[in-house]
Design goal:
alpha/beta; seven-stranded mixed sheet; DNA polymerase, domain 1; single chain
Amino acid sequence: MAHIPVLLEEVIAAVPPTVQRMIDCTLGDAGHSQALLEHFPNVELLGLDADPQAVTMAEEVLKRFGKRAHVVHGNFADVLTFARNAQFAPVDFILADLGWSSTQFAERGRGFSFDAPQESLDMRFNPQEGETAADFLNCAHEIKIGDVLRRFGEEKQWREIARAMVKQREHKPFTTVQDLLDTVESVKKRTGRLHPATLVFQALRIQVNHEFERLEQFLKQAPDIVTPGGRLAVISFHSLEDRTVKEVMSSQSAIVKLMTKKPIKPSAQEIKSNPRSRSALMRTFEKI
């Protein structure tokens, strides 16, 4: 399944005209990076990704750009360290696309999607570190599980689902996506187009990958490696992410300024051609 980079024209427009170096902190399938290197023929790019499979794919996609493209396996929470180690600081533009690529959901085999119920309930971005979603559900206290569902999924039935999860693991530990689907659907029935497990999957993925902690770390480091007049663009996909971006960057208003009062959204034409883009929100900041 080919991944289509979201808000591509808007990302290109956000790049300062004097750009020489840029960092794509979330390479994914390298769609944004490839387009940026094509559009700015004199630019060098450093690309990071925590997923080792994404790094391998990106290296293949970007190899035609030769020494202009540098690909590193690493989490954007450590962007400052990676940039300095690669002698790639300061830079003029940083991009962070917080979405997950289509291939990660469809082809990784890590239980990201309820469309693959036979897969292991893993959900880790980097399969080389941390606990799986199954580990968390099989070991965490009911209060902790409920808190994760409430905070990271904004799931209204968090109490009932957490209680059902603990009851389920006493009978049979969680191992597959199907185990999770059965448990959620025993409590919450489908109403409308949204799958009943959607918010639960979101919450568990955020928990397992420490997404908000790492996002906050990244946002606090990024301004330190951007040149004055350089820019940072962040694409988020739900209100919790966007709120974090807005709050953390507002706390650094002495060194960065928000370039648009409201987040940039995909056009109707983009949403029609790529429905997955419909929830994308981009905020761009400029170093003072």
